[in-house]
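Case study B.
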Amino acid sequence: MSDPAVRLLVVAVLVALVAAASWAYRRRSAADAARGAAEGEWPDLPAELAGGPPGTWVVFSTPMCVTCTTVQADLERAFPGHRVVKVDATQRPDLADRYAVRRAPTVIRATPSGQVRNRLVGLEGVRAHLAGAGATA
Amino acid sequence: MAPTTPTPIDPRGPRFNQAVLTTGLLVGFLLDAPLVVPVFAAVLFLGAAFGPRYGPFLRLYAEVIRPRLDPPAELEDPRPPRFAAVVGVLFLSAATLAFLAGAATLGWVLALVVAALAALSAVTGICVGCEIYLLVARRRGVELAA
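Model:
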């Protein structure tokens, strides 16, 4: 291990590994966020969460997700009268699996009958949606 | 969940700390200077054990760098990065013991594992508290259902 060339090579391999892993992580996150685009792709919300016009927003969170609280407050402010429910995904792995929740916050928006309209991932996904909704409202 | 939730932090603080850690360990490795390993074990320990005010680079970020930046877009729970720092302290302490015992290769392997994980965290900005706990819970959910 005394050869500087060997050390340089080890560092180069390490940098390449880290670059590959972060690229894979970003790609996976982007693919997850892109899944929300198509309507009718997801099963309906269970009756316990659906119900009540004009609709429901389910915010999937974890016990240590600070951003989830921000997102919940943003939605409550932007859509007064809508039902905004925070669901701890670690307590409801069944629901998290149903909507392929990988990361908190992931937000599901459903009609009063429980039909899923949107699936938004992360603060940036929710903020982008709110900016779009603000333009059309 | 803990009865009291700790004050959320700017996630860029730990990211800066991780970037300095990675750079320090890699430079130390290139120059064959094992002294960086116990030094960074102490740096991480101070921040993890006594809070960000006592972590030299966390404090540098908070007092010098952060005032020059825009406010953070998101905040983060301080517990997951703190836990990661504790794991880093354990690895770097084991690496230090390896160096003292004359096993330099083992010492560097342990130190470079820390450097690689810290680099990954600094580059992606991954929110561990938003990811891993989900996966753990899913596995637990599967076991309960089985």
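Strands of chain A lie at 56-61, 83-88, 106-110, 116-121. The remaining cases will be described in the next quarterly update.
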